[in-house]
Amino acid sequence: MIKELLDNKASKEEIIEFLSNYHAYDISKMIEELSEEDRDYILDLLNQEVLAEVISYLNPEDRHEVFSNLTLDEQVALVEELEPDDAADIINQLEEEDKQELIKNLDEDEEVLDLIKYDEDEAGSFMTNQFVIANINDDVKMATKKLIQMADEVDTIQTIFVVDDEGHYKGQIPLKKLIKTKYPKTVLDILEVEPTFYVFDHVDNLVRHLKHYGGYDIGIVDNNHKLIGMIAQDDILDIYLDEAQEDYEKLAALPDTSTDKNAFLTALHRLPWLLILLAVSIPSAFITSNFTGILTAFVILAFFQPLILDAGGDVASQTLAVTLIEMTKKDAKVISNGLKEIATGAISGFVMGVIAFAVTLIFSFILQFDHGILIGLSVGLSLWLTVITGPFLGFMIPFIISKMKFDPAVASGPFITNLIDISSNLIYFGIATLILGGLAAWLTSILNFQ
Predict the structure, then answer these.
(1) Planar angle of CA 372, 377, 378, nearest 5 degrees
(2) Could you tell me the keywords of this UniProt record (predicted)?
(3) Is the dihedral of CA 47, 53, 59, 63 positive or negative?
(4) Rounded to whole angstroms, how far apart are CA atoms 169 and 189?
(5) Cα(301)–Cα(375) distance, rounded to whole angstroms?
(6) Which domains does the chain have, with CATH numbers?
């Protein structure tokens, strides 16, 4: 829509009036589709307050580019308009030299300075230090008065946090509950104590907490349990979505899922992972090359090889997904769940193996291959063992990785699939060599002797 206005040479006044009808988020999505020149032109038309809101909604790459193109004075003015947590995100994206230069020009009491010292995966990097505080000794009238006084200065008034005289967290009160409560009740009478997080807690803890306890504004405390910040519900949802996307990227062996890069940069970014996976798959090809003798003697084995490999990879990926989900639960029973997955694989594999035996027998009869029963036995038994091995690896690999204090999501689908390919080839050709290369040859020699 905004592009049409620019194409039709609309005046500045017309564009400003048009944008005034839209939320900052909608404006950010409109300008993301524009060229750099048109984007900068539109941003120059916005007043400082709206500009700050729009920039906070831009994707990280565009936000960094827009902010970096501003003069130092413009950056300082914009930081003063931005919410402290949004400003911290932008500042931490800058090059170290530019970051330090900007920090030197900010007022010493600028609230964002307290937030930029935290790592991006710590709770402190997501919190805001602008929130409503009431003292535990206040009555509801005093708490309501404080709420009204602070309303213009804070991010949200949905939750009133309660502290003692030393600033220690004592609880919190939902806005609705405060409004409904009548004097002479006190804050102590109506406060609700909710779990809090330390400022250096990993963001994964917040995500797991959200899943089990639902959404509410979370208090952030220091090592002395003094309340120093809060994370609003909408920010917690953003954290949850970011972590889910990150886990999906790991599971799919993707460096990232950004669609903002061009095809060349995307390919360049993914190439190292693809080369690693290629290197992991080389042993599988090497194993196959060492069984050319049995493949030459029984060509039908090549026909069923994809069946064995695909079945193993499928059940391993299923078990991997179930295991990762189980690990996120508060009362996770990872080992018992893993054993159940392996047992499920054994049952499913047996049924699949019997079916594969019958199908192989029919194919051998139609194509007039010798030793049809032994070929069917090789395929059926291999499929059964492979479908048992798949869940075993799909469970054990993320379990071991988690015990090593690494993120189990790095046990990506493609990585697991390559390991299954290696083990499946070993099982398939090993059993085929044992049955067809040994037992079939022995039976043939007996028949020829007779």
Answers:
(1) 100
(2) Cell membrane, Magnesium, Membrane, Metal-binding, Transmembrane, Transmembrane helix, Transport
(3) positive
(4) 16
(5) 8
(6) 2-117 (1.25.60.10), 132-251 (3.10.580.10), 263-449 (1.10.357.20)
